[in-house]
Write a structure and sequence with these properties.
CATH class: Alpha Beta
Distance between the termini: 28 Å
Protein name: Amidohydrolase family protein
Radius of gyration: 18 Å
Keywords: Lyase
Mean pLDDT: 91
Domain Amidohydrolase-related: 10-315
Strand order of the largest sheet: 4-5-6-7-8
Number of domains: 1
Organism: Micromonospora echinofusca
Low-confidence stretches: none
Strand content: 5-15%
């Protein structure tokens, strides 16, 4: 069991049955991520395919199980994980569609929250966000920018951003590399410049970028410098640092982020997503250690590991 030493934890970033999510898979196909057997053979021939297995072995993670056929039984399994590891609230950012995820989190409303995750360019996307938030109780919107068919600053999305701003719900936007070996190295529509142009037009919209922006970390920090509504989510193993052309570690990321944008725009996430790995206490432990070694005072730790998420999700009012 992770020892938080009295610190509440609200995890801003988990996935429910991500590998079987039809909404995400459809966007992957539209983005050309699954071109066919030829690409898969090339990935295997290049030795990229075993990378995931090597990574799991290095971190002590077992091979992923197939998603359970009973979604509610899997939700119960997640609830047990959260209670075991003393995670006060957890936000599932994808989960098979808005209604499917809303049904799952409604099973454990004391522990689980969810985000809408539909196609932002689909007709009626803004109305669907309003329905998902107002009628189904979801708490924001999750997008994978590399999978989009238009830019984040495309005027076609203005109604969506305006709706999120009016509803006062956050938008979690993944930028940079997507997927494991053989995935998308980047997308044509996911650069922080586009993110910043959108954020400046909607200054009261809380925008959160996970994984420290992946390879766009420098550009993200500058975008956050210019846009005080841009936040950074710390989720995942952040193994992408190994591919950068200069030395970069999780310690470096936390230090630079803390020194530049401060503690009130950093949001803890684990990116927990599959069993038998379950809740990834290793990521939480490492991040807590780094923050404490940086000498962060207790109120800053409280903000990063719970308070900022509570504010963004409207939990303070409730």
């Amino acid at each position: 069991m992770t020892e938080h030493r009295g610190l509440d934890v609200v995890d801003f970033h988990l996935h429910f049955q991500l590998g079987a999510d039809p909404t995400v898979r459809a966007c992957e196909h539209d983005a050309g991520m699954h071109p066919g057997d030829g690409h898969d053979r090339a990935v295997r021939a290049a030795g990229s395919a075993p990378y995931a297995e090597q990574w799991r072995r290095a971190w002590g993670f077992g091979d992923p199980e197939p998603p359970m056929t009973d979604r509610y039984a899997e939700a119960d399994r997640w609830a047990d994980e959260l209670r075991t590891h003393r995670i006060r609230r957890a936000v599932f950012v994808t989960g098979g569609g808005n209604d499917a995820l809303a049904d799952v989190v409604d099973r454990h409303p004391d522990l689980m929250l969810g985000l809408a995750h539909h196609d932002p360019f689909a007709p009626g996307a803004a109305a669907e966000l309003e329905r998902a938030v107002v009628e189904r109780g979801l708490r924001g919107l999750k997008l994978f920018a590399p999978l989009l068919r238009g830019g984040l600053d495309d005027p076609a999305l203005d109604d969506l951003w305006a709706t999120a701003q009016r509803l006062r719900v956050p938008v979690l936007i993944h930028i940079g590399h997507y997927g494991s070996a053989g995935g998308l190295p980047a997308g044509r529509y996911d650069h922080p410049d586009q993110l910043a142009r959108m954020a400046r037009r909607f200054p009261e919209l809380a925008v959160v970028v996970p994984h420290f922006g992946v390879q766009h970390v420098k550009e993200l920090f500058f975008a956050a410098w210019g846009c005080p509504n841009i936040h950074v989510d710390t989720s995942g193993s952040n193994q992408w640092v190994r591919w950068m052309p200069y030395r970069l570690s999780l310690d470096d990321l936390f230090r630079r982020c803390y020194e530049t944008i401060g503690p009130h725009r950093i949001v803890f996430g684990s990116d927990s997503s599959w069993f038998p790995r379950g809740y990834v206490t290793r990521y939480l432990d490492d991040q807590l250690r780094i923050c404490r070694e940086l000498g962060m005072p207790d109120d800053h730790l409280r903000a990063i590991f719970a308070g900022n998420a509570e504010r963004l999700l409207g939990l303070e009012e409730s």
